[in-house]
Amino acid sequence: MTHLISDDFVGQQNARSLAQLQADYDALAGVLQRRGRDIETLTAQAAGFAVALPSWGVGTGGTRFARFPGIGEPRNVFEKIDDCATINQLTRATPGVSLHFPWDRTTDPRALKEIANKHGLYFDSVNSNTFQNAAGQALSYKYGSLTAQDPAVRAQAVAHNIDCVELGNTLGSKGLTVWIGDGANFPGQHNLRGALERYLESMRAIYTALPSDWLMYIEHKLFEPAFYATTIADWGTSFACATELGPKAKCLVDLGHHAPNTNIEMIVARLTQFGKLGGFHFNDSKYGDDDLDSGSINPFQLFLIFNELRDGAVREGENFKPAYMLDQSHNVTDPIESLMSSAVEVQRAYIQAALIDAEALNHHQKNNDALMAAQTLKQAFRTDVSPILAMARVRAGGAADPVACYRASGYRDHKREERPPVAGASGSGIV
Ligand SMILES: [Mn+2]
């Protein structure tokens, strides 16, 4: 495995804080032991956790108003892979990379796969893009893609998705995530039922082209760019479509794609109960599809989602493996730092949820003791599991403190030299 920051450097950085980490780890081990929990079991769970990186997240995202590029940004998919490899080197929690086409299109997917594998990375699900017009595209998506009135536009959008599947198959991916911006901006613009009928017809054609070991993830989003009626606006529509399409179609929950205050953990419970929870795009939000860093606004919500996932794993057994991915837009931070700390926040919620005393929770629920049930969750949520996460990283060769190690390495300054900006570099943005 090759790394751009030397493993020796990471080891030297870790050495400076190892004694402190060990002391914190031992203290936490004592606390957990009194609760009847073994810290080593939890550390092993943390080490086994993975959340995929969005290739478009390593560049500055921007908003619909402006984009303020960062320094030394990746200019093509190969440079994005370098940044993703660095994130995984330091966090040891992000070995998967999710590509977005046509932004990440390459004429040599085999070479791309080889380089990613050399860095210890693999390709997670691929994402199609019919919410923009690609350069040189014959027909416009201005009035929709998979739901467009014009059958030729729909055929073009279907063909693009099938192309993504073929490219992904060469790269070793096992899933296609489909999000469309289709919908109406005015009452009356669409026949609401007709648009969904056209969507299903298009999706059936894509579904038929899926390899047998692939899944299709349907990503819903409440609004934007369609501000009156988005065709795939909510989990109900997503669930209905996934059910219509068949067992290879599942629902993808992007945390920012709901109305404010929506009980997302309940959506997770529902989709799990009916076998349609495909996976997540993790991020955080205050108002809408803000694409803020995971855990930066509402870490308790993230924890409650992982409580449902913990319950799902108990009930569903080994086959319950939702796909975890970050989907964020970084505008005022170094994207590498944001993605590293976000991966750690998702991993943190996972371990906090693993700490829940499920037996006690069950008991309190049966006895209608709402206060103690809530306290049982809070006890796990309040536990600072940072030493577990740091120890899992250090043992795997990662950094005790990924952001500090990254800053000390001078990685971004090297990239400033190596990567002078080029006009029209490959895309990054908000999805
Ligand atoms: Mn998303």
Automatic annotation (TrEMBL):
- Identify the stretch(es) annotated as Disordered: 412-431
Ordered alphabetically, the record's keywords are: Isomerase, Manganese, Metal-binding
Task: State the InterPro entries in the record.
Answer: L-rhamnose_isomerase, L_rhamnose_iso, Xyl_isomerase-like_sf, Xyl_isomerase-like_TIM-brl
User: Which molecular function GO terms apply here?
Assistant: isomerase activity
Record bears the keyword Isomerase: yes
Top-level taxonomic group:
Bacteria
Return the protein name: L-rhamnose catabolism isomerase
Species name: Herbaspirillum rhizosphaerae
Q: Which gene encodes it?
A: rhaI
